[in-house]
Specification:
Elements (H helix, E strand, L loop, with lengths): L7 E8 L5 E5 L3 E6 L13 E7 L2 E7 H4 L12 E7 L2 E7 L1 E9 L16 E7 L2 E6 L1 H8 L14 H7 L3 E5 L3 H13 L3 E5 L2 H13 L6 E4 L8 H9 L8 E6 L3 H11 L3 E4 L3 H15 L1
Parallel strand pairs: 2-10, 5-7, 11-12, 11-13, 13-14, 14-15
Antiparallel strand pairs: 1-2, 1-8, 3-6, 4-5, 6-7, 9-10
């Protein structure tokens, strides 16, 4: 299959102590280091090995195997750390070994098997050189350790005019992560937007077309970028080619640093891009969206 712009996905492959092979989006990885000396905090979560100091900053170190329900290692000095940065936070994932970096297509990533359940901690499955690779849902791992709830909306955050501008306006949110979808929906409900949600790009396209056919078009689409089968970039490209829904305002909402994605987002025709998760920033982005729509 020929790859198109935005369709390529770089994965860092690694193994847990059980030998299980997993992958993580390389864009979420800052570096790979030997596990440094750890300070063990008495009140730490049982899946947190401790806190390390990395270039003067504290780094929470997570026993990834235990965090996803497997047997962890007995010695933190074995293995290595994958230092990740996403959703405005940084942490170290303790794993047995790192293998290599591979390229695949988001179109070749399938959703998790239907029977995998809510504790699967994977966002998708693909094949690399004939081997099944499960892609880690790091957002879910972090949420299980420290549930993230959107901050309360300050009454003074938006003006009365801005609140009235948003009230009742039609928004569709697409995200393959239960956690991110719930966070976004909570904020949009507080803003009194008319909010619908779906879990895949294909479902988003179907809903956009269906609502347009019923004479009640979706005004703003808030879309994740990393999704199995069709990512956010490909979704925007597909929307822009459709005569009926092609003018939909699209805000790409990503766990990666949005500055990394701005140029690509603009190239595919997205209207705006934002890093998850900030209630304040999301509220302001939606005000910008509806101000531009009038």
């Amino acid at each position: 299959m020929a790859m198109v712009m935005g369709d390529a996905l770089s994965l860092l492959l690694f193994r847990l102590h059980s030998g299980r092979l997993l992958g993580i989006n390389l864009l979420k990885v800052q570096e790979i280091i030997p596990c440094p000396a750890l300070t063990k905090l008495p009140s730490r979560h049982p899946h947190v090995l401790g806190v390390a100091t990395l270039r003067g900053s504290a780094l929470t170190v997570i026993d990834l195997a235990r965090a996803i329900g497997e047997q962890g290692g007995s010695d933190s000095r074995e293995g290595c750390l994958i230092v990740t940065e996403l959703s405005r936070s940084r942490q170290g994932l303790h794993v047995q070994s790192v293998e290599r970096i591979v390229q695949c297509s988001t179109r070749d990533v399938r959703p998790p098997p239907a029977g995998s359940g809510g504790k699967a901690f994977i966002t998708g499955v693909t094949q690399i050189d004939g081997k099944i690779v499960q892609i880690l849902d790091i957002e879910k791992v972090l949420h299980e350790l420290a549930p993230a709830f959107p901050e309360e909306l300050d009454d003074n955050l938006l003006t009365e005019h801005e609140r009235q501008l948003l009230k009742g306006r039609r928004v569709l949110v697409v995200d393959d992560s239960h956690v991110a979808l719930h966070q976004t929906q909570l904020t949009l409900n507080k803003l009194e937007l008319d909010c619908q949600t779906v879990r895949s790009a294909a479902a988003a396209l179907e809903r956009l077309k269906a609502e347009h056919a019923l004479g009640r078009p979706i005004e703003v689409l808030v879309s994740d970028i990393e999704m199995p089968e069709m990512d956010g970039y490909d979704l925007v490209r597909t929307i822009r080619k459709d005569a009926e829904i092609g003018q939909t305002y699209v805000l790409l909402h990503t766990s990666l640093d949005s500055t990394m994605n701005t140029e690509k987002a603009q190239a595919v025709g997205a209207n705006d891009v934002l890093t998850k998760f900030s209630t304040v920033d999301l509220s302001k982005a939606l005000v910008r969206a509806f101000e531009s729509l009038g």
